[in-house]
Design a protein that fits this description.
Alpha-Beta Plaits; 65 residues
């Protein structure tokens, strides 16, 4: 996440689109990673949504919220 604006927004937009509730967020001071917790029942859908969101970005397609 360091030096790349919008990563948290893209992450949590994908989570919100799944209708999942974020129970906890943790980010290290280095800004190299972000961790968050969702209910186990939402985990699979959230993981797939994140993979899709970031695969599109790496392919050069911008996501819109």
């Amino acid at each position: 996440m360091m030096g790349v604006p919008g990563i948290a927004a893209r992450t949590f937009s994908a989570v919100a689109a799944q209708g999942a509730n974020v129970l906890m967020i943790s980010q290290a001071s280095s800004e190299q990673s972000i961790c968050f917790v969702v209910p186990e029942s939402d985990a699979r859908g959230v993981a797939m949504a994140l993979e899709t969101a970031f695969a599109r970005r790496s392919a050069g397609v911008l996501l819109t919220a």
